[in-house]
Write a structure and sequence with these properties.
Blueprint: H1 2-56, H2 62-83, H3 87-108, H4 116-131
Length: 132
């Protein structure tokens, strides 16, 4: 009977060892997805901070602001390609796109742009990526 118990114990141990890569593989896949979203989200956040700073410097240089707008749009495109199906990420990127468009319109009209909607949209993106 001892050999049966030993065989059963070894079989259980083997099953556990074989299952470990599957469990950690799934877990790591979720973390990779979050990192795929998180890195572009952090980049977009940095771009948004730089845009807000350029707007707040008192300079009326639309070209400087446009450079940061272009960076945000490129990073949003990359993020959308990576996470296009995630509804919370998609909603946040839509909000960022709208906020950036409003900023561009304000700059084009010679008005001081409102930065709060952009900050809020970036925070929503960061939250969506953290949840993913």
């Amino acid at each position: 009977m001892a050999p049966r118990r030993r065989t059963a114990a070894l079989a259980a141990l083997l099953a556990g060892v074989l299952a470990l890569p599957l469990v950690s593989g799934c877990s790591s896949g979720g973390q990779d997805d979050g990192k795929d979203c998180g890195k572009p989200a952090r980049t977009i956040g940095t771009d948004a901070d730089q845009l807000i700073q350029a707007m707040g410097d008192g300079s009326k240089d639309p070209q400087s602001a446009q450079e940061f707008v272009d960076k945000i749009n490129r990073d949003l495109d990359q993020l959308t390609k990576q996470n296009g199906e995630d509804s919370s990420v998609k909603g946040a990127t839509t909000r960022i796109t709208e906020a950036v468009s409003d900023i561009q319109d304000s700059i084009g009209d010679g008005e001081r742009p409102e930065s709060a909607p952009l900050k809020s949209a970036v925070a929503a993106l960061t939250k969506a990526c953290a949840a993913g």
